[in-house]
Amino acid sequence: MIGNDIVDLQVAKVQSNWQRRGWLQKICTSAEQKDILSSKNPEMLVWKYWSMKEATYKAHQRHFKLSPVFNPKSFECTLGGKVYVDSFVYKTNTEIQNKYIYTIAMISNKDCFSSIYENIVDISSKVKKILCQKLNIPISLIYLEKDNNGVPTIRIDQKTTPIPISITHHGQYSAFVALI
Predict the structure, then answer these.
(1) Cα–Cα distance between 27 and 17 in angstroms, integer?
(2) Sign of torsion over alpha carbons 107, 65, 115, 135
(3) How many CB atoms lie under 10 A from the CB of residue 47?
(4) Helix 30-37 to helix 42-64 angle, to the nearest 10 degrees?
(5) Which residue ranges form the domains of the chain, and what is each CATH number?
(6) Which candidate in 48, 53, 55, 63 could, as Cys together with 103 as Cys, close a disulfide (CB 3.0–4.6 Å)?
């Protein structure tokens, strides 16, 4: 199972004051708070952990077909990139750039394809174009669907088994990851 999340660092800086009283306690476990407060760059670690939690939430929700309910403190991140949820461990891969942080979370080591875009208005159309090229099939055969919980999948010609996909956007950035 997969999930992803992107944080536009400029938007996060304006919209969220992670240093205000109670913010870290509401979002982060005590171990995560220690990591953040002892970090050389605490703000970057806050958004890295947030991105890891969001990406893992999406993977966990997909895996167990859960209704959308997000409790960030129930997802415990480690500096090594693992996220613990109940008795499950998700591996994350986080890309940190000057303008954004992007995380992919998985429960297993499967091949995936991911892409990040700046200023994309219609990510669904972009996903279809990329997959049409990657899979060498007509774009008219690619369908994006969402289940009752809002979890997206891709179908080829509406006959195949759904392909898991996760789509994210924040500020100027959009991204997707698909298990192909």
Answers:
(1) 12
(2) positive
(3) 22
(4) 150
(5) 2-178 (3.90.470.20)
(6) 55
